[in-house]
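Lay summary. Proteins are chains of building blocks that fold into shapes, and those shapes determine what they do. In this project we predict the shape from the chain. Here is one chain we studied, written as its sequence of building blocks.
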Amino acid sequence: MATRLVHEMTYDASLIEVAAMLSDPEFRQEVCRNQRATSYSAEVEGNVDAKAVRIEMTQPTDKVPSFAKKIVGDSTTIVQTETWSSPSHAEVRVTIPGKPGEMAGTAVLVEKDGVTTETVTLDITVKIPLVAGKIEQLIAKLLGSALRAEERTGKAWLAR
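And here is the predicted shape, written in a compact code that computers can read:
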């Protein structure tokens, strides 16, 4: 059984402006910095219409509870891939190499009256007996925090 995370980010910009921002490796790197990544790379192949995004980052685990720290260690590497088939729809996968879990879902952009909402929906699955649900909930909380940092970064980026 998986834990579902649904997170909305709202931008005062057109869908195409938000899609362009999400297509910019500089924006993706700024998001990594604002998510406290200690090392990162962001690659974007394609353009606003269709693109493949790959982000790899290492983050400290100092804010992770002790029960989970035993599993993840002092830092963790996260690999996020997004396959955008159009400016408004992506398949998203997040993995933690060497760890028993994954996150998979979608990112969808919808514009209304010049305001664009990005909805990220991820199913979080951890395959560790007895503690899977607890770790899935923790990951959902950490991902929510990361997406809030992405939204703050996006709003500042679009205001420039």
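What the prediction tells us: The CA atoms of residues 109 and 118 lie 4 Å apart.
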